[in-house]
UniProtKB/TrEMBL annotation:
It catalyses: ATP + protein L-histidine = ADP + protein N-phospho-L-histidine. Pfam families: HAMP, HATPase_c, HisKA. GO terms for cellular component: plasma membrane. Keywords: ATP-binding, Cell inner membrane, Cell membrane, Kinase, Membrane, Nucleotide-binding, Phosphoprotein, Transferase, Transmembrane, Transmembrane helix, Two-component regulatory system. Gene3D superfamilies: 1.10.287.130, 6.10.340.10, Histidine kinase-like ATPase, C-terminal domain. It comes from the Bacteria. This is Sensor protein. GO terms for molecular function: ATP binding; phosphorelay sensor kinase activity. Its EC number is 2.7.13.3.
Length: 468
């Protein structure tokens, strides 16, 4: 997969493009504003020259030659202006100033009519330059017929000024965008320094340190949440690592015990000749150890499949009383052997996987029977109440210390550090119960009062109503 590139560079490029767009917009506005202002100024000057030309023609005392000379002087001194005058019959009288090409055909301004911006016409000159001009009829002295006069300006200097201004705007826009990109890159790189510190700190984290070596309070507010999230993730990973380490140790211990038993018994049996009965007793003992190993392996495979979402939950509508009575019957022989009575009080129904539900309840009953004192009762209780279905397995006994309750459902956890009853319990029965409840989107809880009653509770989501 191709790398996405530097975020700082991408953001700096975005800044440059945004700045370039903004500068270009401002430059375009300034260009049009300047062009309009220059045209307005030039048109005002053109109107003044047209008014002066009309005034020069109106002087009655001047001779004809002097009148045309004065008329040509209206545009003298400026190479961009020009003047054309023709007699009523079309005979050219004056032609002076810049070359303006052929003006478009249009009615001339009548004699005495006011000269204003509406009188100005525009056309293109011989070189493609814009030309603004006014064509009017004016009386020359006392002559009865008016002459036609055209005063115009060729916008050569205006176009040169605007062309130079355009290039300056383009250059300024490019330089501004480049400066915005460079400064933005520098600012972003400085702003990304806390992220680099977080990255460096994260690289330095090990399972023994377990803490992000960056103080979240010293980071910007936007990165504080990220640092806290990383810290919590590191803590969770460390917790999982410690649990995995403990799991490996416990697994090795629990597999070592039956293997050592098998090996020791077999070595003793092979040390000397034995009777057929002794060999049969050895094989029976070995079978028990093999069965225990098989149960442990089966439980570990179940947990592994559940962790990888490979356990399919097949829901069915189950009667709580029927299911708990069935479990009580299954454990009846074990309970009778210990002098324990199992009582069932259940009503309602639950949507659950039959096999998984029986396994979870069976694990709880097995624990309850194991730890209940002789002559006591194990109570199975279940009720369906609206949005929840509760199943409780409780028994009297020594109870569980309050500090051990949160760890009961961890794999291979035993409240007894000496691993009492290690031969009977693998330490993953309650972990399987919790996994089954997780698969059903429910919860497993434990309550215990030392020396009185211990209660394990399974809470399933209530059954969906009609239309849900």
């Amino acid at each position: 997969m191709k790398a996405a590139g530097s975020l700082t560079a991408r953001l700096a490029l975005a800044f440059a493009l945004i700045a370039g767009g903004a500068f270009a917009g401002v430059g375009l506005y300034l260009y049009h504003a300047l062009a309009a202002q220059i045209i307005e100024r030039d048109d005002a000057e053109l109107l003044r020259k047209a008014a002066r030309a009309r005034a020069e023609l109106a002087e009655t005392g001047a001779s004809s030659a002097e009148r045309w000379r004065e008329l040509g002087g209206v545009v003298a001194g400026n190479a961009e202006y020009g003047l054309l005058a023709s007699a009523p019959d079309g005979t050219p009288l004056v032609a002076t100033g810049a070359e303006a090409g052929v003006p478009p055909e249009a009615p001339a301004l009548p004699p005495g009519a006011p000269i204003g911006p509406a009188s100005i016409r525009a056309w293109s000159g011989a070189d493609g330059l814009p030309v603004h001009g006014i064509t009017m009829l004016a009386h020359a002295g006392a002559q009865p017929l008016p002459v036609q006069v055209t005063v115009y300006q060729v916008g050569a200097s205006r176009m040169a000024l605007l062309r130079a201004y355009r290039w300056k705007l383009v250059l300024a826009t490019c330089l501004g965008a480049l400066a915005a990109g460079v400064l933005g890159y520098a600012a972003l790189r400085a702003g990304m320094a806390p992220l680099r510190r977080i990255a460096a700190g994260t690289r330095a984290v090990t399972f023994t340190s377990g803490a992000l070596p960056v103080d979240p309070s010293q980071l910007p507010a936007e990165l504080n949440e990220l640092a806290l999230a990383l810290q919590h993730m590191i803590e969770r990973l460390r917790e999982r690592y410690e649990r995995l380490s403990q799991f490996s140790a416990d697994l090795a211990h629990d597999f070592r015990t039956p293997i050592n038993n098998l090996l020791g018994q077999t070595q003793v049996a092979l040390a000397s000749d034995r009777s057929v009965e002794e060999y049969q007793a050895l094989l029976v003992s070995n079978v028990e150890e093999y069965e225990r190993l098989g149960r442990m392996i089966e439980n570990m495979l179940f947990l592994a499949r559940a962790d990888n979402a490979r356990v399919a939950v097949r829901y069915a509508e189950l009667d709580l009383a029927t299911e708990l009575e069935r479990q009580a019957d299954y454990f009846e022989l074990l309970a009778d052997a210990r002098g324990i009575t199992i009582l069932v009080d259940a009503q309602g129904q639950v949507d659950a996987d039959p096999t998984l539900l029986r396994r979870a309840v069976g694990n709880l009953i097995s624990n309850a029977v194991r730890y209940a004192p002789t002559g006591t009762q194990v109570r199975l209780w279940a009720r369906e109440a609206g949005a929840q279905v509760r199943i409780e397995v409780s028994n009297p006994g020594p109870g569980i210390a309050a500090e051990d309750l949160p760890k009961l459902f961890d794999r291979f956890f035993r409240a007894d550090p000496a691993r009492a009853n290690s031969g009977e319990s693998s330490g993953i029965g309650l972990a399987i119960v919790k996994t089954i409840m997780d698969l059903h989107h429910g919860t497993a809880q434990a309550e215990s009062t030392p020396g009185q009653v211990t209660c394990f509770r399974l809470i399933f989501p209530g059954r969906a109503g009609p239309g849900q």
